[in-house]
Amino acid sequence: MVAKEIRVSSFTTVTPERLQQLAEQRDVELIDVRTPVEFREVHAAEARSVPLDQLDPAALMTQRNGTAHEPLYVICKSGARGAKACEKFLDAGFENVVNVEGGTDAWAAAGLPVVRGKKAVSLERQVRITAGLLVLAFSLSALVFDIRFAFGGVAIGAGLAFAGITDTCAMGMLLAKMPWNRVSGNNASCAVR
Fold this sequence. Notes:
8 helices, alpha/beta, two-stranded antiparallel ribbon, Oxidized Rhodanese, domain 1
């Protein structure tokens, strides 16, 4: 049976429910491109962790051995990073990639099997907290010390607008590299299937 897939951009998507049906019929390869901490908190039972900032499409496809003809399914939190990962594969010349619609949020909401671990603050929340604190600090500094501190708040606002327009977030990428967003030692074992 062929998966019911919808063409988006130049890669296809699949619903979590349909992917689970496929996984019950045959082996599927599902990679989760969120940060290791996000993966540790909750992930689809079938998924293995391959963070987007460490994704090497050629190396991953080479490791697939005899399964390269089978689709590679990509999941993230809500679908945006999964789409970016699919684009990376397409740019590298690999077309047999499928993004999971709605990501892990939709997977869990559908009641599909997940693995839960240690709770974490999501990367999206970390960006909102950091941006809010920076704007607050610049605004207070402009009121108390020098009006030129207001330019810091303007820069943060411009950065957030740019992030929204381009669907890229420099602050998010920077926060993803912070020590509290890394998994080390025995905790890293959950990233392996």
